[in-house]
């Protein structure tokens, strides 16, 4: 059985932490990080807001991401081996792929591939504070969060909801352990119901 999980949501909402914990706990599990598909900096447009448009779908090579997902779909075992994941034979031939990123549910060719979609949220002030504490290869210029990052998050979340993309909303203010156990239990129950 092939099972694709989306861990989406806002910047600094806890997506990578949750993904990494799930990766350790789930058998035959691979991960694809959307951040690995950013286009080179010189291909990122400057918007009307004066900022490089990192938080828009066009900043990502989504065709390459889709191609990577399709490689997993066509041969999860081969994909796992190529990415250093040891395949457990006792896991009843279940293979799990986690897609992690901030715009997972905005690219139509991917939306219908998910078995389960999660969406992490945190309040504006918490998100801004977490973002200010991160260091990025390309540092945030002053005003980026309020002038671009937060408005783009709100825009894409509204579009996701307007398009009827069903997600399980997760409260990113919960402890890491609580979120991990909630999602792990949900995935395990879903897998049991499918077998």
Structure description:
The chain has 195 residues and is α/β, with parallel strands linked by helices. It has seven helices and five strands; from the N terminus they run E-H-E-H-H-E-H-E-H-H-E-H. It has a single domain, classed as P-loop containing nucleotide triphosphate hydrolases (Rossmann fold). The protein has a five-stranded parallel β-sheet, sandwiched between helices.
Features:
15% strand; single chain; alpha/beta; 5 strands
Concise account of the structure shown:
With 195 residues, the protein is of the alpha/beta class. The chain has helices at 15-25, 62-74, 76-82, 108-111, 124-133, 144-162, 176-194; strands at residues 2-9, 29-33, 95-100, 116-121, 168-171. 31% of the residues are buried.
List the helices and strands and how they pair.
Blueprint: E1 2-9, H1 15-25, E2 29-33, H2 62-74, H3 76-82, E3 95-100, H4 108-111, E4 116-121, H5 124-133, H6 144-162, E5 168-171, H7 176-194
Parallel strand pairs: 1-3, 1-4, 2-3, 4-5
Helix pairs in contact: 1-7, 2-3
Just name the CATH architecture. Answer: 3-Layer(aba) Sandwich
Arithmetic mean of pLDDT: 92
What is the percentage of strand-forming residues?
5-15%
CATH fold-type name:
Rossmann fold
At the fourth CATH level, what is the homologous superfamily?
P-loop containing nucleotide triphosphate hydrolases
Helix tally equals 7
- Show unreliable segments: none
- Provide the CATH top-level class: Alpha Beta
- Structural class call reads alpha/beta
Keywords: ATP-binding, Kinase, Magnesium, Metal-binding, Nucleotide-binding, Pyridine nucleotide biosynthesis, Transferase
GO biological process, one term: NAD+ biosynthetic process via the salvage pathway
GO molecular function: ATP binding; metal ion binding; nicotinate riboside kinase activity; ribosylnicotinamide kinase activity
Family: Belongs to the uridine kinase family. NRK subfamily.
């Amino acid at each position: 059985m092939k099972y694709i999980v989306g861990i989406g949501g806002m910047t600094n909402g806890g997506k990578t932490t949750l993904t990494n914990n799930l990766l350790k706990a789930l058998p035959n599990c691979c991960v694809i990080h959307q951040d690995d598909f950013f286009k080179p900096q010189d291909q990122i447009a400057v918007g009307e807001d004066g900022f490089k448009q990192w938080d828009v779908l066009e900043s990502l090579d989504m065709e390459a991401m889709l191609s990577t997902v399709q490689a997993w779909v066509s041969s999860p075992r081969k994909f796992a081996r190529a990415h250093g994941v040891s395949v457990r034979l006792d896991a009843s031939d279940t293979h799990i792929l986690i897609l992690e990123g901030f715009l997972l549910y905005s690219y139509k060719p991917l939306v219908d591939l998910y078995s389960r979609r999660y969406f992490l949220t945190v309040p504006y002030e918490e998100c801004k504070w977490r973002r200010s504490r991160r260091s990025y290869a390309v540092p945030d210029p002053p005003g980026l969060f309020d002038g671009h990052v937060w408005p783009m998050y709100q825009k894409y979340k509204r579009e996701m909801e307007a398009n009827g993309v069903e997600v399980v909303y997760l409260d990113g203010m919960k402890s890491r352990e609580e979120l991990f156990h909630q999602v792990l239990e949900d995935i395990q129950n879903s897998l049991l119901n499918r077998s």
